[in-house]
Amino acid sequence: MSKYLPFMKSGPTVAVIRLSGMISTSGRGVLNDATLGPVIEKAFSRGKPKAVALEVNSPGGSPVQSSLIGARIRRLAEEKQIPVIAFVEDVAASGGYWLAAAADEIYADPSSILGSIGVISATFGAHEFIGKHGVERRVYTAGESKSMLDPFRPEDPEDVARLKGLLEDIHDNFKDHVTSRRAGKLASDRDLFTGEIWLARRATELGLIDGIGHLRPMMKERFGDKVKFRRYGLRKGLLSRFGAHVVNDVAQGIEERAAFARFGL
C-alpha cells in the first residue's frame, strides 16, 4: 500500500550484491567487470539504499578483473556516499579477498577462509613427452621473447625470470590495494602477503577483517528490523537453463571446482 502513497515512509533498504564464483575474463556465470558492471551500477542507483552489502564467495582468479570490479565498487560508493559492507561465506581468497577489501568493512563466518594474498602462474612441461613419441615442435617468431614459456620446449631461465618479475609487480599492486583499503587495521608484526590463508577469527586478529557476523542480523541491528533487502547478481541466460553449451559448462564447472578445492571446499 505504501508504494502508492509517497507521503508514507517505508523501511530503509540495503542492496545486496552476490559475488560468487571464479573471477575470469570469459565464461558464463563467472565474475568479471563486463557482466557485473550493470548489476553493480543498478544496486547503487536504485532506490537510494542505506548501504550496499557484498556477499563474497570466491577463490579468486584474474587480477585485472578483480581490480576493475573493486574499482567500480569504490567509485560508486564515493560518488553516492553509500557505505559498503562485505560478508564472506566459504572463502574470500586471492582475488576474492581483493573484492572483499573494496568494502569499508568486512565480516565473515567463523569458518570462512580468507587471505591468499599472492599471485600464482601454473603451466606444464611436455617437451620430453613429445620427443619420446617422435613429435617435433616447430615455432617461428619475430621477437626473441614471443614464445616465452612454451610448454613444448625446455624451460628457459630467462623466461622464468621475466615471468617472476611480472608476478612480483602484480603482487605489489595487490599489496598496495590491501594496505590502502585496510589502512590502520593490519597487524604490523606479521607478513600478511605470503599467500597464507586464515580462518575468520585469526583474520580478525590480523586486521584482515573487522569481525564475525552474518548479513541479515547485522544489517537489522544497524538499520532496524524494518530494513528491506534488494538482491542483485548474475543470472543464467535462457539457453543455459535448458542445457545449451553443456560441454563448456562442464569444463568451466571442473575448473571452478578445482579452484575451490584448493581451500578444502
Order of helices and strands: EHEHEHEEHHEHEHEHH
Distance between the termini: 45 Å
CA-based shape: elongated
Strand percentage lies at 15-25%
Number of strands: 8
Alpha-beta content class: alpha/beta
**What is the average per-residue confidence, as pLDDT, rounded to a whole number?**
87
Radius of gyration: 22 Å
Poorly predicted tracts of residues: 238-247
Give the proportion of residues in helices: 25-40%
Individual helix count: 9
Largest sheet: 8 strands, mixed
Briefly, what is this?
This protein is an alpha/beta fold and 265 residues long.
Structure characterization notes:
With 265 residues, the chain is α/β, with parallel strands linked by helices. The chain is 39% helix and 16% strand. Strands 1, 2, 3, 4, 5, 6, 7 and 8 form an 8-stranded mixed beta sheet that branches. It is elongated, with a radius of gyration of 22 Å. The termini are far apart. Mean pLDDT is 87; it is low at 238-247.
